[in-house]
Design brief:
5 helices; six-stranded antiparallel sheet; five-stranded antiparallel sheet; single chain; alpha+beta
Length: 371
């Protein structure tokens, strides 16, 4: 039986959800929020025949991103339209779906091993990464600033308990963390060089395409243009060409961050590692060039193996990076799953991956937005 830490109950608050995301709600005094309720119980594997929903959670708001039923993942109604419906119709379907979940209970794992119990009290409009939509709100979230963005990568919740686990820093002095760090440093330079070579190849192809298009229009092209076409030298390409050599890059330090998660009863542990190396370029520019390494490693038994890795080569604006924030790990039967928020300069999403051997295989994507 789970040990429950509970405060004195408060009367539920009834609130009709707003009719549209643009509505205004009169200011009112928020009731005193009850202290959160926690379960003290170690998570266990979810039965393979179970049905449940998964959501991302942030500051009193719950956004369901998918459902597992009959051994399959599916995405709930979402605000953006498709070839069969408009954005307005998509938002209406999402709101109706959210209304059907008012009163539902969710379980959000926390880093200290406890599970927070969440109760959906109402439906409220929210914005996340240039995308407007609807969210379930706890009493706390019902009085949240409507202009505030939903914070991606904050946490997650399941509609059943036992829930999953979260990512955290490895134990101090961890031999596995040291090994993960060495694995990253061994491949950083090659990954970085391969990305730089690919970017240069794409830049030259684009320059040639622009030059051919200019000639086809009858423009006078005095020489091959290796920049933006028609005499325009692309500044980012110029900075790339002026970058220091791979040998010089290797002399600069790499700042690393390692996060890990494991699941009780499972031999596997999952590591997410990032490495950042920044340096001045030969071109006179105050914006440092940055190489960002991202990688996922799984430990099964005593073996540490790469599942995926990549390097983004960018500068201080980080406009070309693909970021990831690990949220948690959970089990369905004998299968281990990883949930992460990820995105780039103009988009975000939440993705469930299944660990299959030494691979991450996508099973569900939802709850993001794009500009």
């Amino acid at each position: 039986m789970a040990e429950v830490h509970r405060s004195a109950p408060v009367a539920p608050r009834s609130e009709a959800p707003p009719a549209a995301t643009s509505c205004t709600v009169p200011a009112e005094a928020a009731p005193a929020a009850a202290p959160p309720v926690y379960l003290q119980e170690s998570p266990a594997a979810i039965g393979p025949d179970a049905s449940f929903q998964i959501a991302i959670f942030s500051t009193g708001l719950i956004v369901p991103i998918g459902e597992y039923r009959e051994h399959r993942w599916s995405r709930p109604p979402h605000p953006e339209g498709d070839e069969f419906s408009t954005d307005e119709e998509g938002a209406r379907r999402q709101r109706e779906y959210m209304l059907s979940l008012v009163g539902s209970t969710w379980y959000a794992p926390e880093a200290d091993g406890r599970t927070r119990v969440l109760k959906a009290a109402s439906v409220v409009p929210t914005d996340y990464f240039c995308q407007s939509g609807w969210a379930l709100a706890t009493v706390e979230g019902s009085h949240r600033d409507r202009k505030a963005q939903f914070e991606m990568g904050s946490g997650y919740a399941l509609s059943l308990h036992p829930a999953g686990t979260t990512f955290d820093d490895p134990a101090p002095g961890s031999a596995d963390a040291a090994a993960v760090d060495r694995m990253m440093r061994e491949v950083f330079g090659d990954q970085e060089s391969d990305m730089i070579a690919w970017l240069e190849e794409q830049r030259l192809k684009e320059a040639e395409r622009r030059r051919a298009a200019a000639i086809a229009r009858g423009a006078v092209v005095a020489k091959a243009d290796d920049g933006g076409g028609e005499g325009h030298d692309d500044q980012k390409a110029k900075r790339t060409r002026a970058s220091i050599t791979p040998e010089e890059r290797a002399a600069f330090p790499i700042e690393t961050r390692i996060e890990m998660a494991s699941f009780p009863g499972s031999e596997a542990a999952v590591y997410y590692i990032t490495g950042n190396r920044s340096y001045e370029k030969l071109a006179s520019n105050n914006c440092l060039e940055v190489s960002e390494f991202h990688g996922w490693i799984v430990k099964q038994g005593s073996d540490l193996r790469w599942m995926t890795k990549w390097v983004d080569v960018t500068d201080c604006d980080r406009g070309e990076t693909h970021w990831a924030t690990p949220l948690g790990v959970f089990r369905i039967g004998d299968d281990l799953f990883v949930l992460m928020s990820e995105g780039g300069y103009e988009y975000s999403r939440n993705t469930v991956y299944q660990i299959v051997g030494d691979r991450l295989e996508e099973r569900l994507t939802g709850g993001g937005g794009g500009c």
